Amino acid sequence: SRSRSQGGRGGGRGGGDGPPAALLPAAGCCGCIWFITMILVGCAFDTLGPLESGIEINTFTKSIDTTRVYTMGRWYIGLGRAFLVFPRNYQTIEFSQSEDADEPPLHARSKNGQVTIDCSMQYSLPLTSIQTIYTSYSLAYHDKLLKIAQSEIKLEASEYEPNQFYEDRVKMGQAMLARLKTRFAVENVVVHNFQLRKVTLPAANEETIIKKLVAAERERTAVHEQKEQAVIAQSSVIAAQATQIIAEFQAEKQRNATILTQQATAEAKRVSLSSQTSVFGVLRRS
């Protein structure tokens, strides 16, 4: 009975379906190695979205690869490396009261008084400049560009009179766009658009400017009305002259018609008298 039980235990260990007990640690070790390998291989890849670009950085030494800029896709870059991600779409800098704005409206000084400017602009980062931008500003490029835009807009505003913010708004917007393009090009950044949304002046200045604009508009209206009256008067003169020419033309035609009628009547009488004379001559000879 003991030998059977012992034999049973011995037969169970040596003749069952499972692997030998000595192989279990080795199998577990291989499984762990395989699992760790898969994790490491997965960590050697990084992904960029369709609106992203990136440069490769060594996460240990913090050095960057200056030979390549990556775009959309899944890339094998190796262990201990990752992407520094930059946007490829337009980025907006906005100064307004909006919740999404970067900063409140700008308080600038014009040639003759303070102005408050609501505005926005759009820029993009060229792929060829990504490495230079990172070297200069790391990933804080947007904050740096925000300060540059703020300074340039204020400088441009200082070159105008307050009333020009009303009268030459389109011209001012174009001038600010040109100035921002030039300045951002120094930073290897492209500016695409600028919107001069709203300009607010101090109440006293605004009222004075509005009065000047209303007076100027009234003056333009008066000049327009004078020109309109002059055109109407000139039209009346032209119409009278045309009527006179027509009357003269008709009178001339009537005179010519009368002359022709009289000439025809005279000719008819001459022919009649000539005929009568011929008849009388024939009758006398008879």
Task: Put the structure in a nutshell.
With 286 residues, the protein is an alpha+beta fold. Helices cover 57% and strands 19% of the residues.
Tell me about this structure:
- This protein has 286 residues and is an alpha+beta fold.
- Helix content is 57%, strand content 19%.
- It has 7 helices and 8 strands, in the order ααβββββββααααβα.
- The chain has helices at residues 2-15, 24-43, 130-137, 141-157, 164-167, 169-186, 203-285, and strands spanning 45-48, 52-58, 73-76, 81-87, 91-95, 106-110, 113-124, 190-200.
- Strands 5, 6, 7 and 8 form a 4-stranded antiparallel β-sheet that branches. The chain has a two-stranded antiparallel ribbon with strand order 1-3.
- A hairpin with a 2-residue loop joins strand 6 (106-110) and strand 7 (113-124).
- Helix 4 (141-157) crosses helix 6 (169-186).
- Residues 1-15 have low confidence and may be disordered.
Oligomer: single chain
Gross morphology: elongated
Q: How many H/I helical runs?
A: 7
Q: How many angstroms does the end-to-end distance come to?
A: 197 Å
The proportion of strand residues reads: 15-25%
Major beta-sheet overview: 4 strands, antiparallel
Helix content: 55-70%
Structural class, judged by helices and strands? alpha+beta
Order of helices and strands: HHEEEEEEEHHHHEH
Rounded average pLDDT: 81
| Sequence stretches where pLDDT stays below 50 over 5 or more residues | 1-15
